[in-house]
Write a structure and sequence with these properties.
Layout (H helix, E strand, L loop, with lengths): L10 H6 L6 E8 L3 H11 L4 H9 L6 H17 L8 E10 L3 E6 L5 E6 L2 E9 L7
Antiparallel strand pairs: 1-5, 2-5, 3-4
Helix pairs in contact: 3-4
Subunit structure: Part of the 50S ribosomal subunit.
Organism: Nocardioides marmoriginsengisoli
Keywords: Ribonucleoprotein, Ribosomal protein, RNA-binding, rRNA-binding
């Protein structure tokens, strides 16, 4: 296969979407623990985009602001690069992976020190057009 015949898609897009229509966005090295971010991401998985954005806007969790921005970015990617209709989009995949952990030291009694782990997350959201009940 020559260079001109190759498809112009990234390996990341192929692993997330394959040949299906849709778009994704990710935020890497976010300074929030993956466990806290997963609580928020689990709330929006499978929801229509407008419902998910409304839910995130008023969610009390700290991670909801970051997930809101990532979801807005994914919707913008879908509408501009893929020419998909915003009203038909659904959050099909949502995942939070663990990023690098920053290690810090906290002084304790009698000259000792304990380690503080400041964890980071990689948040990825995939939006795809909703599948009608007659299909698939």
């Amino acid at each position: 296969m020559s260079v001109t015949e190759r498809r112009r898609t990234s390996a990341r897009r192929d692993s997330l979407l394959g040949d299906e229509a849709g778009a994704f966005a990710s935020a890497r090295f976010v300074r929030i623990t993956p466990m806290k971010a997963r609580r928020v991401v689990d709330m929006v998985r499978g929801l229509p985009v407008d419902d998910a954005l409304a839910l995130l806007k008023f969610a009390p969790q700290a991670a909801s602001e970051t997930v809101y921005k990532v979801l807005e970015s994914a919707v913008a990617n879908a509408t501009t690069t893929e020419d998909l209709d915003r009203n038909t989009l659904v959050v099909s995949k949502a995942m939070v992976d663990e990023g690098p952990t920053m290690k810090r030291w906290r002084p304790r009694a009698q000259g000792r020190a304990t380690r503080i782990n400041k964890r980071t997350s990689h948040i990825t959201l995939v939006v795809q057009p909703a599948v009608e009940k007659g299909q698939k």
